[in-house]
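Reopening this ticket.

The earlier resolution said the output was attached, but the attachment link was broken on my side. Pasting everything inline this time so it's all in one place.
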Amino acid sequence: MALQILQKKLDESTFCPLCQASMFFIEAEEFDQELYYHQCSHCEHQNYQNNARNCHCQRCMTQRKKLMAQTKLQEQRKLQKKTDVIEKSLDQLNFMHKLFLLSLLDEHVREGSSYAEFIDLNQFKYQTITPNAYFQTQLLNQLIKDNVLVAKELSDDYQQYSINIRLDGYSEPSLFSITQQLIYWFYENLSLGVPFKSAEEVKNTLYAVLYQEIVQFMQYYCKTWGILIAGNTRFQTFCYRLMDTLAPGQIFYMIQTALEYLYKQKALQARNDKFINTNILRKTLEQYRDRSVNEKWETPTLPRPMTIPLSKMSHILLTHFLKFDEHIFYQPVWKMWKRIEPRLNFYSVKRCMYCGSNELNIEYDAESYITMTCRHCKHQDHYFTQ
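Inline output:
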């Protein structure tokens, strides 16, 4: 039985939400069930009790069609965005980004432990992943921009990311597979693969990480006075020049001496607006360095304070990959680099003599031989070092 109107009365106390005209109160019956609703006397818009039904006036029908079209367009855009995201292979990432990914995953993804198949940044809020927070934000933003980290669509916030990379030709590898490959590269003394394209790439990363260690040191020192400070481009350029001749520990000493002098002179501001504290520190260090060179001062070395936590990123690079310890802060970078560059150069240019592949397993004995087994064609090459 179709809708049958039993009674229709004008209700001048109820107004249409669309056109503000008075509405009829209607009592009706449909399929032997009572039905009560209001209908506009002008545009015929309908309001049902408890929103039991949708209105079928011309305006509501048009609005629903518009919403459906918008929803369809959004779904199409979302699908298009998915297809536009290009997957990079893990070995296509630069050395710095591989190192950063391992710093995030190493403690999170362990064999035999339970973990989600995505990176939740909330888990790292109170962990020292990189030497300082700004550096970590820079790295994260770059990986997001490069579509290596892709925000989960159903996430309540923008803190959960999937890793959008290929591994050994396969899409959507597990986090465990990604972590295991990164561990092979950084923890196995280059015997199970090489995570860099050239020795220069490693050197650039070493300089960047040591610079961030310097920034961490000066932030830690200023924090005791309630003073904010950070690095900037000019300060970074100056520190890179210092690292060409001085050990990081000597730069620590210069910064500590300069900050104490500036604090006693009340030259530091509580806030670092327009890098005012950074710039005055840099100028003070430049003056100190020029005078020390001209007057041939010997700059003392300050040990890295044990109270400053060594970041996961620094620990993996300096201890596991480059096989250094805290003594890395006591010698200039050029001196360290002289020891490690030849070996990195060898590994960056090696190829299988048979098929040209660089996917090699290496048995390395510095005193007698190097054996390289190609994972692609199984060919072996032997190089005797004596």
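Reporter confirms the inline version is readable. The mean pLDDT is 86. The longest helix spans residues 58-84.
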